Every structure is written in structure tokens, then in C-alpha cells.
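Researcher: Structure prediction, please.
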Amino acid sequence: MFEVFKKLDWFFKHYWKRYTFAIIALIIASAIGLIPPKLVGYAIDQIQFETLTMQLLIMLIAGYLILTVVHYAISFLWDYTLFGGAVILERWTRSRMMDHFLKMTPTFFGKYRTGDLMARSTNDLKAISLTAGFGVLTLVDSSIFMLMIVGMMGITISWKLTLAALIPLPVMAVVMNKYGAAIHARFTKAQDAFGEMNNEVLESIRGVRVIRAFVQEKQDETRFQAMTADVYDKNIEVAKIDALFEPTMKILVGLSYTIGLGYGALLVFENKITLGDLVTFNVYLGMLIWPMFAVGELINILQRGNASLDRVNRTLDYHADVSNPESPADVTQAHTVEFDNVAFSYPETEANQLDGINLNVKKGQTIGVVGKTGSGKTTLFKLMLRQYPGIKGLIKVSGIDLEAISLEQIRAWIGYVPQDQMMFSKTIRENIQFGKADATDQEIYRVMELAHFLDDITQLPKGLDTQVGESGVTLSGGQKQRVALARAFIKNPEILILDDSMSAVDGKTEARIIEHLRQERKNKTTFIAAHRMSAVTHADHIIVLENGKIAEEGTHEELMKLKGWYQEQYQQQQLENEEVSS
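Model: Predicted structure follows.
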């Protein structure tokens, strides 16, 4: 049950001073809280024996008030320190998870769906935080505070009465242990179901246009209702066990009260304890209710926290498929990019997506990459970005194996515009500044001109300060592509990769963007993948991929002379353009 604390020992060791202070302050506050009942019992005995004077009464009241103020001050300190530590753990773990997500490769996100990762980053972290705060509180109160109360009852009043009143405790320990095991299993299932529901909601929101277009609203609602019902059922199973804690505790506490009052009254009649002692004993029994409840709460919290921590640790223990070399090579510039007999297959697949790729690219060259859908164009670029392990052959930059260069250096060189542009829910200015954080408006307008976006920006309601909405929902496909292009242009990278990133713009706009590229990137390397041959005709070298292999290569003129796939596609597209123009 307490293994969750062992799993969190790295945190407690780091903040041992905070937690030591909080626990000591909590114990002191608890000890101070044990004094007022003795004052009450003492006052009752003085009244019974008619020895209470005004001076003594004033002293008792003054002492009670002083203890109240001191108890309040110390309670504030332990509360602030203890629960502040829990907030730090939540923040720290969330930061670790976010840092972990940013290091992960596509393989990781293929195994863990977004909704489940969100559940682990929210609900599970809350449960872990609760363990480090309220869990520590219930641990101290259900052990040290309980022992302090029992000690005061036994030492200052009667051990016989105390032991009799505590007879229900062993029963409680057995019952709570069984409840705890059930909580752990059911809470894990409930959290897994919550992650699945999160993922379903995300997919429905992202695909709402498709859902409406295919009139699938009712089917989607039915599917969602089924998932919420599953989450509800699993949480109800957790709630059923939760609901058993309080009645069980009340029965046990009621038994303790019954024994305490019955046997205590007998001891008063036998003059073995005073009436004030009996009153004090019953006040202590009332104070014992919380520590007894705390036992149940402790088991509940620890089992929930343990289940959540296991889920989070499984995520954090996932090692990145691609990592930095132990001693990265010092490469300052990307003078050349060389593919030497490169072959690659995605994890869990047998067939090669790329096979026997040989290509030598010099700085300042523009390379066109064309081919049928699924021929391997995007895969080629992903290998350059080192998104996947298991590359056969060598990819070299300036003569150095790509795997010997740090990931940060590689990605600092490359500006990548993928097929599916990701717009953040920010302004257009902020989206472009992802490429260069300190970019001025003058620089932004310049790259927007290169991306042929200046006319569009004047038509938007707030210009650069226009919010693009969730995933750029307020922008058209062509506008999103051009904002993404501007974001890459402002980085002015050594290597620019455009992966079919102008498919949503018209031919004239594409031609202007290409012309701007030719002027701006004379001494920089550029890779352009496209389905429209017009996007690569200016390239210094063009490769045609077919089933992961280079089927044709050369300049535009050379490929036209080969009279292969490239020439066929180019002529067909030219005819289509002429038909559209006429």
C-alpha cells in the first residue's frame, strides 16, 4: 500500500526540508490540540469538587485562547508547506511529461493516443498531487496523531478503558485493506476509460466538419453516449467502494463510543476515574474519529495515487526511439547532404518504404522530389529529421553520419513545412514567430511577401493580430499553407524542406512563391516534394521515387528526354492547365 511513497522518494528526498518542517509542525499542532480537552476535564473536576475560583477560571480561559492562537499559526504553516509541496510535485511532473512528449518520436504517439495522454497529464497528476499532500496528512494523522491521542487516553486517564474502546481497530484494518485493493483495480479501469473518452471527444471535435458532411451526428452522439456510459459505470464502481468507507468507519467509531461510555461510566461509579476524566476521554474519542477516518482516506488516496503513478511512469519510462549520441560530432554547417544506399522500413512493417537511395546534395542546390502517392517522399524527409530509428545505409551531413550529430543541431539547420500544416490557436503574428521568436513586424511582412500572403493579411479583420482559431479553423487551406511557409522562411534555415506544402494554392500563386524562393535561397539548400511538376522544374536535380526507389533522376530537361513517368505527368498537367485556362 505504501509503495507509492517509495516510488516518489526522489521527490521527497529533494524536498526533505519542506516535508520535515511540515510534518514536525503538524505533530506540534496535533500535540497542542490535545491540551484543551484536559483543561475542560480539569475545569469539570474543579466544578464538581467546588474548588474552581474566578482566578483559576480566567487562567484556564486565557490558556485556552493562547493555545487556540498558537494552534492556528502552526496549522497555517504546516498546511501551506505541505500542500505547497504537493503543488510543486504536480507542476514538476507535468513539466517532466511535457518535456518527455517533446522528445518523443512518431512511434510513441502511435502507441499512446492523445486523449489518453491528456488524461495522464490531468486526472492522474491530480491523484499523485493528492498523495503528496493529503496523503501525507492522513498518514501522519492516522499514525502519529492517533498514537498521541491513544497515549493521552491511556497514560492520563485509563489504559483499561482505552484498550476496551480500541477493540474495533483490528477489524477496521482488515476491512480497509480489502477496500484498498478493490479501489486500486477499479480506479485504474476508470482512468483508462476516461482516456478513451478524451480521445473520442478530440477526434469528434477535430472531425466535426466531416461528421456533418456525412450526416453522422446521431451515430457520433450514440458512440459518445456509449463511451460516457462506460466511464460512468466504471466510476460508479469506484464510488461504491468509496461509499463503503464512511459507513464502515461510523459503525466502528460508534462501537468505540459505546464501549467508552459504558465502561467509562462503570469506572466513574467505582471511583477509578473522575467525571472530568470521562468527559476528557469522550472528547478524545471524538478527536479519534478523524484519525480513524484518516486510515480509510489514506488507503483510498494511496491506492488511487499508486494507480495513477503507475500510468504516468509507464509513459515516462518509454525511451525515445531516437536519441542524441553520447559524444555529438561538432559540425558547424551543412555543406553537403549525402544519402549512401539508404533503406528504411517503418516499425512493425517488413517491406522497405525506401530502398537503395543514393543522392549527393551540395549547399545551395534545390532538389525536387516527385512520385506517386505513397512512393516514399515524406519518409525521405522524416529520415533527414531523424524521426525514426533503424536507418540502413548512411545519411551524411558535411561528410559526418547524421546519427553522430545532435538532434538539436540537425533540427536547427532544417526548416520543415509538412503536408498537414499545424496552426496554433494564437494570432498570425505568433504563429509566424514560432520560426523566430524575436521577429519584428517588418521581418514578418517580408516573409509574408515571399509566401504571397500580403493580400490576404489586409483582408483579415485584425491583420497580424487575427486569431486563427483551433488548428487554424478560421483560415482556408491555402492560407494555412502560406502562413506555414512564412513561418519556415523567417527561420532562414540552412536546409528548407517543403513537403507538398503548396498543394492548396493555385498555379499562379505557386509560381510566384517558387520565384521568391529562387531569389532568396541562392546559397541555401532546398528540398521540394510536390505532385505538380511545375513546382520542381527549376530544381538543380530532380528524383522520381517509385515504390521507395529512385526510378528516374536528373534536371527537368534530362527527365523530359527520358520520356518516362516524369515526362508523362508533366505533359498531362500542362494539358490540364491549358484546358482550365481556355
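Model: The CA atoms of residues 36 and 64 lie 6 Å apart.
Researcher: Thanks, that helps.
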